[in-house]
Amino acid sequence: MLNPGWKMVSRAPLAALLLGFGLAAALPPAARADQATTAAGKPAAAGNLDAVFDRQPCVALKDLTRFDAPIARLAKRITAQEPVTIVAVGSSSTGGAGASSPSFSYPSRLERELRQKFPRTPISVINKGVNGEEVADMMARMDSILALKPDLVIWQLGTNTLLRDGSIPATEKLLQAGIARIRDSGADVLLVDPQFAPSVNAKPAVHAMVDMIGFTAKRTHVPLFRRYVAMQHWHEDQAIAVERFITPDGLHMNDWGYSCFARLMADNIAATIVRARAVADVKPLPAP
């Protein structure tokens, strides 16, 4: 169960902060739809995408609206309104298995959410999810990922290793090596842990995997999006039926699940950038 001290919060405080820094605020769906554009700069049919939230809103938790570590390179480039490249690495839940179309994969939704929050910054989110992959597979193609010169690598991992009863210690070693490799390239790293889903929860090692990824993130001082906790919150605290965010296969997210996941991640990124900018703007007190 989640910490009972956690409370749901509205998007209003983040909206006020964003406005204070001249950024696009967390607008209602109709307003966000008006701002959305395609990669070619033409208006997108965004309203249809946000209709997924009409029956079930996407609500954030206070503890899920901030990362425990900075995303310094990304913050610097977005603040300077320089082009940003984000590469999403992972398996089928990055690729978008279970979504009704590629537009509902979480990388596509994340790109759209970030463009709305930072309309003056060219932002591209490249989807490099491959079905069935584990960390070793992702490490094997890391050169091709880093060749894209990302400012941020979002690394989703752990689910397939759990489903195959793989080694968590071996995964930990590869994860540490991968974090070092990405950092050596100059990119930021953001980790994403497994999804809260029946097929995953049936595995006895699920909490050990989630804990290992969290511990590794803390020890290496990289941010972690706690997807497992976020989705558990949907079900246990918001009383959303699992079938409302997980497909009938008991594993992959559906359109609502991916869309809310991307929105919460975008809120995290925006809040982290606002905080970094606020700290940078603080001037030291004059010497006595």
Which CATH class is shown? Alpha Beta
| Main pleated sheet | 5 strands, parallel
User: Might you state the CATH topology name?
Assistant: Rossmann fold
- Rg is 18 Å
Please work out how many helical segments DSSP would assign: 14
Mean pLDDT: 85
Shape: globular
Give start-end ranges of low-pLDDT stretches.
Answer: 1-22, 25-46
Multimerization status: single chain
Give the SSE string.
Answer: EHHHEHEHHEHHEHHEHHEHH
User: From the 3D coordinates, which CATH architecture would you assign?
Assistant: 3-Layer(aba) Sandwich
**Class of secondary structure makeup:** alpha/beta
Helix content estimate:
40-55%
Let me know the number of strands.
7
What is the compact description of this entry?
By secondary structure, the protein is an alpha/beta fold.
